[in-house]
Please model this.
Amino acid sequence: MRKHQPVCVVETTKASLEVEAPGAGTLVRLYDEGAEVELGRRIALIAESAEELAEALAGRERAREAAPAPAAPASRKATRKALELAELHGIDLDEIEKKGFITEKDVEALLAGRAGVEAPTLLGGVSTEGVTFPASFHEDEAVGALEPAFLASLRADPDAFRALPSEEKLAALREHGARVGEGVVLGEGVLVVAPRVLLDDGASIGDRGTVDCLEVAAFGPLAQFGPDLDLRCRRAYVGAGVWAGRNVRIGGGGHRDPWAVLTLGDLAFVGEEAFVNVCRPVLIGREVFLTMRSIVVTHNVGHSVLEGYENRFAPVVLEDRAQVGMGTVVYAGCRVREGAIVASNSYVVSDIPAGKLAIGVPARVAGDARRELDSRRQAELGRRMLDELRELLEARGTEVADLDDGHGFRVAAEGSETAVVFVPRLDSADGLPGGETVALTLAYGGGELPAGTAVLDLLARRVHGDGGVVLESVREFCRKRGIRLEPGPWRYPGGLI
Model:
């Protein structure tokens, strides 16, 4: 064995890595094929002399004697997680057509196919588990197709389109095949060009924005991007109620590659100056937070692969309700699972488990992303929210007065008064103050509500009934505390807070 000669290959769910010999000598394997070895233990060594060789061989015999009896060998080699998942679902690994090591994602893909939700070809086989797609992702490929001559004119003279007022841009797109809803706004200097364009009701792109897609650009209802957006890829599917700040950049190197697909689920948040590199699929689920200056990369740039440097091209998945903190980097091939949180200024180089909090460089699990709350504690927080809402309204100059029973307050707005109350459990409208009312509750039993009465079911995250500016303002107050209510999409039209 020569120094630097490859001695083994380590295969993980992320990559394959060759391990080189640190010196010359005789390679001694300490464990038999198929043996399970505790993480961190030595599995082989190189003996540089006869004495070291004799000692190594003796050590191997001791290790074999201490090792547990190996399990019956599987017909295919697979990671531990893949074996556990296959056993749980009764899957024969021989069903998976793949050369080499079988990973958890291979088993997930087989399960998805059985359930009829196999990842579309355009996603390159990426598992879609835990990701809720925008409605436009499932639209017929003919919807929103631009006339070829008009598309060619956009590409030939984009500045002419940029110079048009918003209404003229929208009229031109609509006339030539795009699907354009009501209340869409394209800011000053905005360019939108793609063979298929879908701009649903209330979608908005701020001044100087550029959307240049080689196949489709779709923006769901009330999707809103701030000024200076730069979005370039093959396919972009943006969901309903998405909010993105200024100077967001989506594209970068490889944005013309066949797999350069972005999906951004409903109610997702993209902070200012975020950068998403799309040369491989980037799947961002529903209610995901990708905060200020965060970075998602699907490939690295470096020295020659033939000189031994890493050269990685791989998708990134942020499952539903995942959160990526400010200034955090998510590296190619990583998956942040459902409900997980990555703290600010971290560097993600491996998958983050569902519901966990990860932090650091590299990011490591530090605990759970949330605490379990009992009903008593939830009620305490609900009452505190009501107190905070009152304090905010008073600080904004709104006239507020206590209710007679002391369990809420009245708000004077738009020439009338509206009662705002918190009730831990509400089975019906009986017992609520008379007149216009907004009631916050943790459990709503349903039933008919009088006109002007609205119930915000905070745990079910739904609004029942109707109301005016007070209801809209209370709903916005809840949204800023992470309680995004259905039905949606919804955008705060302005009001008391």
